[in-house]
Structure prediction request, 358 residues.
Amino acid sequence: MAKIVTTREVRRFITSCLSSAGGHKVQCEDLADILVAADTRGHYSHGLNRLEMYCDDYTRGTTDRDALPTIEKETAATALVNGNNCLGATVGKFCMNIAIQKCKEAGVGVVTAKNSNHYGIAGYYGLMAKQAGLIGISMTNTSPLQVPTRGKVCTLGTNPISVIAPAQTDDYYALDMATTTVAVGKIEVARRKGEELPAGWGCDSEGIEATKPEAVLNGGGLLPLGGREISGGYKGYGLALMVELFCGILAGATWGPHIRSWQVPDETKVADLGQFFMALDPGVFGPGFEERLQQLMDQHRALDPITGQDGVLVPGDPERTHEKLCEESGGIPYHEAFIRDMGFLAEKMKVEPMMMLD
Prediction:
């Protein structure tokens, strides 16, 4: 049975845990914004599910609790940012704000970041651009969790891609996806619930497709988007390499198999993630972008669905549905097993546990 927690209470819990670990006020608030947004949009793998990881990075000293990002070099339309090893959420917001400002002046803004950390859902940064009437693109490399096609060793991350664009009124297109079939957080959620995995999600230590979360998390890895080679997994592998090109390689950050793992309990190596942010003004190109995009999306939503399905969706529709659910429920619904785990985290961080609605 789901338990409802208000967004205000979730924010309080996040900032309390991070503050207990010694986090800078700006970093704590930035991360709270992004974790709440993730859970509100239904991306539970990247919301509170990740909070303990961030707290551990603080307490181990692998993330700088007091640092803030800085610009190393820039042009009218570009910038290279040094995240100075602070929380990825703070780096990401800093970078996209720069990209938006440059876009308003030059029609496009492109920012890469090095020396960053895990930055939450990629879509959050595209949404920042969308709020300014712009197209927002964001990508990041991550610790090696993906086994390349024909391989059996993890050499790439989930390496997500997000593209978000404004349509008419409050509607918008919102692609936010990993280049693996799923993010590792979904494997963790399945393990917590005691569920088996669908085919194509992950493999064991020999590169063989696996349905047990434990086999994937203990020596195995995630499969590229598409799963096995015969079903197109090589395309997801190619996309993951593309993200690495724009992030680790272009930004001068650590890349691929050289990035530290978050699955090692006593890891002390700095992540030095690379990230990519772009803001693009549709107004400097063909006319009527928002109207034409709206027509494109509505045409697909109007298609007759297959038997048993309510309708054809476009990227961003499931997230909007979950946001509406949270609004109607008065908060975010969490699985009771997850609430239990957050209670353990509260004890570990010596903070008040989350209070649920009656």
User: Anything to note?
Assistant: The longest helix spans residues 88-106. The chain is about 40% helix and 15% strand. The mean pLDDT is 95. The two ends are 13 Å apart (CA to CA).
